[in-house]
């Protein structure tokens, strides 16, 4: 979806249309941008930057507080459309998914035709625009989907994959963010195709264990299938505070509350967890995480809260100002899943 949260707000409030809009928090209270309209992006406003910086970049920016009920409702409609066309839908977020449309309810033989019909159906049902990428695999489809936003459609036919790859910078590679891209460029690896011929040790120094995976992507190879029932691997929440926390008792209370929220989520989803993780960001932006795992898995709120609070002892939260706190649960188990015993060891 195109600038999803901001587009929903502009759809529902005609006064916002054509104006630079940012959905997010208060610029005076360390709010961040959750989404920016395309009018705001012209000024350099984008998601994840501090709202205070966004206002400096665009002084006439219109700030809207997020309304996730509206976004979830729109997302539900979009995904219903997806699943009416193919059962092979892999959600990535509220506003993005992979679809395998090799076989589809419309009987279309061309991916481009499916994408056009999906875009039209989404616009009719929600009043919103979506951009689509059609390609032989996930990696290429992901890049193509962002190629001509907003309301874009880019098709990479198998015979045109190599020509498309030749155009791309190295940061088009999956998992290569600004820091990794800078490391690669320092080593003379500027374009995606440069990864193919880069010295093995030079590449490994820059990206470590990702070396072989990035080489495959640089050749346009990505064999991952669309997984319609991707397993949830974790859940949690975090909060950036308007004023730094300096009282360890207050910090414990915040961690306790977040941990109990995570336990409530486990109860609602009927899952158990083995690992509890806390996240602490100090006033100098240093960020650390601490985890504790044990068996059997649990969803007991008291147990999860005690473990989370105990993890604070392995941080400097009692002696330093804290800007952000978070709690998450990992290594999830479904107690209703059938038990699968290990194969017996053979006697040799």
Question: What does this entry look like structurally?
Answer:
The protein is α+β, with helices and mostly antiparallel strands and 348 residues long. The chain has 4 domains: 4-66, MutS, DNA mismatch repair protein, domain I, CATH 3.40.1170.60; 75-160, Reverse transcriptase/Diguanylate cyclase domain (Alpha-Beta Plaits); 169-213, no CATH class; 234-333, Dna Ligase, domain 1. It is built from 13 helices and 11 strands. The protein has helices at 4-12, 38-41, 51-57, 68-85, 111-126, 138-145, 161-166, 178-186, 194-197, 200-207, 211-218, 248-269, 301-311, and strands at residues 21-24, 33-36, 62-64, 89-93, 96-99, 132-134, 153-155, 234-245, 272-282, 287-298, 322-333. The longest helix is centred in the last third of the chain and has 22 residues, at 248-269.
In short:
By secondary structure, the chain is α+β, with helices and mostly antiparallel strands. The chain is 37% helix and 21% strand.
Q: What are the SSEs and their pairings?
A:
Blueprint: H1 4-12, E1 21-24, E2 33-36, H2 38-41, H3 51-57, E3 62-64, H4 68-85, E4 89-93, E5 96-99, H5 111-126, E6 132-134, H6 138-145, E7 153-155, H7 161-166, H8 178-186, H9 194-197, H10 200-207, H11 211-218, E8 234-245, H12 248-269, E9 272-282, E10 287-298, H13 301-311, E11 322-333
Parallel strand pairs: 1-3, 6-7
Antiparallel strand pairs: 1-2, 4-5, 8-11, 9-10, 9-11
């Amino acid at each position: 979806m195109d600038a999803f949260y901001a587009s929903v707000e502009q759809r529902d409030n005609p006064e916002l249309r054509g104006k630079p809009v940012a959905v997010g928090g208060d610029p005076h209270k360390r709010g961040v941008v959750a989404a920016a309209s395309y009018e705001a992006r012209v000024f350099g406003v984008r998601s994840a930057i501090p709202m205070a910086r966004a206002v400096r970049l665009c002084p006439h920016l219109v700030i809207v507080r997020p309304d996730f009920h509206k976004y979830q409702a729109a997302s539900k409609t979009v995904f219903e459309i997806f699943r009416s066309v193919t059962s092979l839908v892999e959600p990535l977020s509220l506003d993005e998914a992979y679809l395998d449309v090799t076989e589809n309810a419309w009987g279309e033989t061309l991916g481009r035709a499916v994408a056009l019909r999906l875009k039209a159906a989404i616009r009719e049902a929600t009043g919103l625009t979506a951009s689509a990428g059609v390609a032989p695999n996930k990696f290429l489809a992901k890049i193509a989907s962002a190629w001509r936003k907003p309301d874009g459609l880019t098709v990479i036919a198998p015979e045109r994959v190599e020509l498309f790859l030749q155009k791309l910078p190295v940061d088009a590679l999956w998992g290569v963010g600004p820091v990794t891209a800078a490391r690669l460029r320092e080593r003379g690896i500027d374009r995606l195709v440069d990864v193919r011929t880069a010295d093995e040790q030079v590449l490994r120094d820059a990206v470590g264990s990702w070396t072989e995976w990035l080489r495959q992507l640089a050749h346009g190879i990505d064999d991952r299938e669309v997984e319609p029932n991707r397993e949830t691997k974790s859940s949690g929440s975090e909060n950036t505070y308007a004023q730094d926390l300096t009282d360890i008792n207050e910090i414990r209370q915040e961690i306790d509350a977040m941990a109990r929220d995570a336990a409530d989520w486990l109860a609602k989803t009927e899952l158990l967890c083995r690992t509890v993780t806390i996240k602490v960001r100090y006033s100098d932006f240093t960020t650390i995480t601490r985890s504790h795992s044990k068996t059997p898995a649990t969803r007991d709120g008291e147990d999860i809260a005690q473990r989370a609070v105990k993890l604070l002892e392995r941080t400097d939260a009692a002696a330093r100002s804290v800007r952000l706190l978070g709690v998450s649960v990992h290594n999830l188990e479904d107690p209703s899943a059938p038990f699968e015993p290990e194969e017996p060891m053979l006697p040799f």
